[in-house]
Amino acid sequence: MVLLYLPHPERFWLASIKDFSELCDPDVKNGKLRHLDRFGINWTAMANAAQYNGQRVINRDVYVDEGGVQVFELDVSSLGATEAQIVQSWFSKMIECPRGDPGDAKPSNGRHRLWTSWTACSSALLPIHSDFLTYEDQIPYVPRMRETLKFDATRVLGRCSEAVALSSPLSATFGLLLFGVPVGTATKRFGGSMPVGNTSESQRAELHKTIWRIANDLRGSVDGWDFKSYVLGMLFYRFVSENLAAFINAEEHAAGNAGFDYAMLSDEDAEYGRVDTVAEKGFYILPSELFQNVRARAPRDVNLNETLERVFKNIEGSAVGTDSEGDLKGLFDDLDVNSSKLGNTVARRNEKLVKLLDAIGDLPLGDLKDNSIDLFGDAYEYLMQMYASQAGKSGGEYYTPQEVSEVLARIAVAGKSRVNRVYDPACGSGSLLLKFAKLLGKDNVGGFFGQEINLTTYNLARINMFLHDVNYERFDIAHGDTLADPQHWDEEPFEAIVSNPPYSIKWEGDANPLLINDPRFAPAGVLAPKSKADLAFTMHILSWLAVDGTAAIVEFPGVLYRGGAEKKIRKYLIDNNYVDAVIQLPADLFFGTTIATCIIVLKKSKKDNSVLFIDASEQFKRVGNKNKLQPENQDWIIDTLTVREDIEYKARLVPNEEIAQNDYNIAVSSYVEAEDTREVIDIKELNAEIARIVARQAELRISIDAIVADLEGGAA
């Protein structure tokens, strides 16, 4: 027998009984619950037991105890263990129904009923089938219970301990659900939970799979490359909303206002904090326009596309006239909520937008106070990587594989614990720049600077900075052509520069008579060919490199040995002792190409007059359809670069004079001899072996002939 103490009138519970009966009816059961049939739930038994007739449900009795509180008595002895716990859990959750007014006869709207049903079934199944409940099964209820329904876990658990008498396993699971910690990141009993932010590698991999599945399922017939702006943009919208709310809440709580919740504040009251918050965070979002509140209203908002369009404009507009205006302007330009890609009609588009909001809102990225900023950034990086891998050449132009980025950043900051400013003239999505934050910590990087010519990618880079919690005053990402119109003259020189510029693209070159006098290109006395801008980027980087700085640049292999203007630029670099090292990378590392690229390391203050050539072409592991630089491969490259000594078949320190004698060819293969792995053959021994084989063959022939003759004689 289970007693539930109910703070609602009887008619509220009669409506709840009807809801539950409909839930269990095989003809109307919500599709979200159908996959749970694999656990053998007897929906028919529960539906029959909960027939709504206005009088009874599973031997239902309603009476008032001495304290004047209604008691709802359930006898679930006629049901199986799983079914009984589902019934108990479902009705128990109505005690804290956040949308159910005690005066209403209807306990909840349809949307909340789905969530309540989902959590009830899950809470009943977890203690019994915890080993078989998949990660995907958990996703729909955890974020909704914690974020959208806004349960205060402490209040609810305290109230439930007094008001609900449940079996021990179910109580433990109920507490686990309310706190929003998925199974797999916590023990099966409340109190042994692990914060979501401390995600293990296996859980992170599982999260990545879930993110990619959701992104693919959500886009439908829309091309994945086109749809990336919607997924990434909405992820950014969720982040800035939660980031701002967490920031304001923390300040209010520190000031003694423990019950403050910015999301529940009126827009009118919120206006008082706008100026100070924009000065600190760079933007402002009114409570009604926060992701979680827009999402909650979305299914009922027939003008959702207009609502989102207004919200995005307001977020960008909040920075107008402030120092952060340039960092926010146009951030949502690629998230076109009125695009026909989402649907042919407004209703269809809004339907897709609701699904998008729910999918992004359901991603288990944790609470910002639980170190989950890394999870947001990590999820964003993972999505960009996956979109890049699917997009081929176009993807490779905006995203450098993580392991290559790490090698470049480690080269640029070798021996340093802090750098003043870091720079990437072709920054793509900004991943390369953010590697410095990972290696040194954000506080040990004075500023992040970059430029990107592609508008969509430029927006991705700025979003990437925000998602990794790099505040607006710490980065400056510019839009435009770096070679023709560089945007950071006032910030150069830079102590660390990394770049993976586009390979052999066209540029103005000598067609623009002004460029030969540009201080970046003039020292070489010649411009890079109009059809191959590779060394134009190299000269630009060298010009903006600090005297004590290091630059690491991914280069197309042709720049190492081609003649003409490129040879003259190499001559300038070698004769002035700017090339510190050339590293040959493995083939098939990058998206969109299988070419084996290289890294050129530049320095203005070298300790010798030589170039270290490193052959790292074998330093990889095949993973899927691409080669990857594993941690041990990365360490080998950095160690070899640091030691700066000859290693047979792997590395060689070559004087600049020898390079000049070799026509300024700086291809690694010209100086590092490849190991001959062919088998050494002793010709004399081979001939002797052949002679032995021939002699033995003759002996066998004679023996065979004798046997055949004997057989022929016997037959006669």
Description:
The protein has 716 residues and is α/β, with parallel strands linked by helices. The chain folds into four domains: 2-194, no CATH class; 209-389, Ferritin (Up-down Bundle); 398-670, Rossmann fold; 679-716. Helices cover 45% and strands 10% of the residues. The protein is built from 26 helices and 14 strands.
Estimate the strand proportion.
5-15%
Shape: flat
The CATH architecture category of the largest domain equals 3-Layer(aba) Sandwich
CATH class of the largest domain: Alpha Beta
The CATH topology of the largest domain is what?
Rossmann fold
What is the tally of beta strands? 14
Classify the helix fraction into a percent range.
40-55%
Q: What's the overall average pLDDT, rounded?
A: 77
Number of helices, where a helix is a run of at least 4 consecutive DSSP H or I residues: 26
Helix-strand category: alpha/beta
Q: What are the low-pLDDT stretches, counting only 5+ consecutive residues below 50?
A: 1-8, 28-32, 52-69, 95-116, 124-199
User: Mind telling me the CATH superfamily name of the largest domain?
Assistant: Vaccinia Virus protein VP39
Radius of gyration: 34 Å
Largest sheet: 9 strands, mixed
Question: Which strand order does the major sheet show?
Answer: 6-5-4-7-8-10-9-11-14
Question: How many separate domains make up the residues?
Answer: 4
